[in-house]
Amino acid sequence: MKNVAWEEASRFGIMSTDDEGRIVDFAEKPAAPKSNLASMGVYVFRWSELRRLLLLDAADPGSSRDFGKDVIPRMLAEGDSLYAYKFGGYWRDVGTIDSLWEANMDLLDGAVHVGTPEWPMNASALSSVVHFSSGVGAQIRGSLIHQGVAARGEIERSVVSIGGQIGANSHIRDTVVMPHAKIGKHARINRAIIGEGAVIEDYAVVGDGSDIVVIAPGERVKANVFMAPAFDRIKDMKDRIVAAGKLDQPAALLTIAE
User: Fold this and answer.
1) Do 143 and 127 touch, CB atoms closer than 8 A?
2) Which one, out of 54, 83, 89, 137, has a CA that is 20 to 30 A from the CA of 156?
């Protein structure tokens, strides 16, 4: 279990424990949480007990087939002894746009260190120094650049994933660029999440530094378009109307209204 902010507690499975760490109450995403001790979604069972519980759950037509909503409450109702381990290390849920962006920024701010002997990264190597190519005029400050990135512009406090391309004279700030996204020349991106394989064309502007803007995977932001979360409708330099607004769903799409 992990203490979370009270204002976020209703997003998690929430438990109450006694002085010995025994769970005495558990509610999945309660509207009025009794505590801020959140389940991290990691459970340890004896196989025989887990099998029994899953068979009972499968036979229950009213079950939602969920550990937090069905299995754990059943165990408590049967009087089983359940204990919580209080985790003191780094952990963050990434179920919202803000938390996904913040988790990436944690890599830059020193809140978590990956690729160390204590916390090895069992994936492709990450590096802010090697494995990427930079052209004339490229400037990289306080950023994490994955291997296979081609950087020609200015990158500041951002995470650029494998295969990303940053065009000449573009400025990327406080942004997460997902794998194989392509950003053209003279683009300006501020406080955004650029989805995997998305394309930002030349001279496009995404974000104004306020709320996080999300460009969906595989989508294209056309040249010269200006997108920001602070306005309902914005005209670009060619008088095209772009639909914008505060985004509240992951991978939400800002579309051009023809």
Assistant:
1) no
2) 89
Q: How far apart are CA 219 and CA 180, in angstroms?
A: 12
List, in sequence order, every residue forming a beta bridge with 220; answer none if it has no partner. 199
Query: Is 23 in contact with 35 (CB distance < 8 Å)?
Result: no
Are 198 and 213 in contact by the 8 Å Cβ rule? The answer is no
Q: What letter represents residue 102's amino acid?
A: E
What is the tens place of the pLDDT at every residue in 193-241? 999 999 999 999 998 888 898 998 999 988 877 776 644 333 333 332 2
243: three-class secondary structure by DSSP: strand
Q: What is the mean predicted confidence (pLDDT) over 19-23?
A: 94
Task: Label each residue of the chain as H, E or C.
Answer: CEECCHHHHHHCEEEEECCCCEEEEEEECCCCCCCCEECCCCCCCCHHHHHHHHHHHHCCCCCCCCHHHHHHHHHHHCCCCCECCCCCCCCCCCCCHHHHHHHHHHHHHCCCCCCCCCCCCCCCCEECCCCCEECCCCEEECCEEECCCEECCEEECCEECCCCEECCCCEEECCEECCCCEECCCCEEECEEECCCCEECCCCEECCCCCCEEECCCCEECCCCEECCCCCEEECCCCCEEECCCCCCCCCCCCEEC
pLDDT band at 94 (very low <50, low <70, confident <90, very high): confident
- Tell me how far apart the alpha carbons of residues 208 and 214 are, in angstroms, rounded to a whole number: 12
